[in-house]
Amino acid sequence: MKAIEVHGGGGLDKLALVERADPGEPGKGEIKVRLRASSLNYHDLMVVKGMIPTPGDRVPMSDGAGEVVAVGEGVTDFKVGDLAVSTFFPDWLDGEPPETSFNRVPGDGIDGYAREQVIMPQTAFTQAPRGWSAAEAATITCAGVTAWRCLVGDGHLKAGETVLVQGTGGVSIYALQIAKAFGCEVIATSSSDEKLERLKALGADHLINYKTTPGWGGKAREITNGRGVDHVVEIGGSGTMPQSITAARIGGHIGLIGVLAGYSGEIPTVAIMGKSIKLIGLTVGSRRHQQDMVRAIDVTGFKPVLDKHFPLEQLGAAFAHQESGTHFGKIIVDI
Question: What is the phi-psi region of residue 8: left when phi exceeds 0, alpha when psi lies from -120 to 50, beta otherwise?
């Protein structure tokens, strides 16, 4: 079977297309999946560039979706022909994350889904949403579940609340769609007026260009008549956190997901205390989070926003497109 490996310590020019042996037949509790799609995340970019050290023959990509082609003894969650989508933490099924979660993240701790076939325990996958393609389903694993856990799992999202999303990456767009599906008001920020208009078309109620309005936290409070927002989906990190704290209401929730605007920096901790803000750091979620999200999608019927498609052989070009920052939504790798 075809696969992509990361060689020589990482770098887009170190991605190698190789032939690997067929994985064989699934054992007890396992399924064999013919993978059809993956999608790019910042975590994957860090792996392929060597920012996260991995063995010299690591197969990257945490997200994978495809049809089940064989099932082992005792498998009850899948049958041959089902469209399955991978989970980010194969060993985190429910409840609190185990301390060893990251040891077996596909594409990082173990081989990922930049390959044609894989055998994994049935618990490393869930059913895909009804009516979704493999490309659409492959966007759930990291970006979708992260947004879901942030707003629903940790934030206990309720209809009528206000959600602030930052930028136009996969997590932010999923958060917008989840918030609208729950009947919430959404404030969206971006540095591009063109991208803001696209967010408006997806349902964003209020738009803020953070380049022309650097004090966007105050603007968000103004939009909410001084109350502040209920939830902030924080993907910037230390660079945007002060404005997120300004935007949040007293007792509001900030889900710290990313560090795109800085790994460390000065944070107004007194403001967090004074406003009784619930600041929760998170990395994706459990299999239960993913199953809950799939059920919600089956009811609400929304679809993910897809950007460009690249064949597996052009994975490096896909990452170059990601680095350009011109994409809107999820970049897909067709396998």
Answer: left
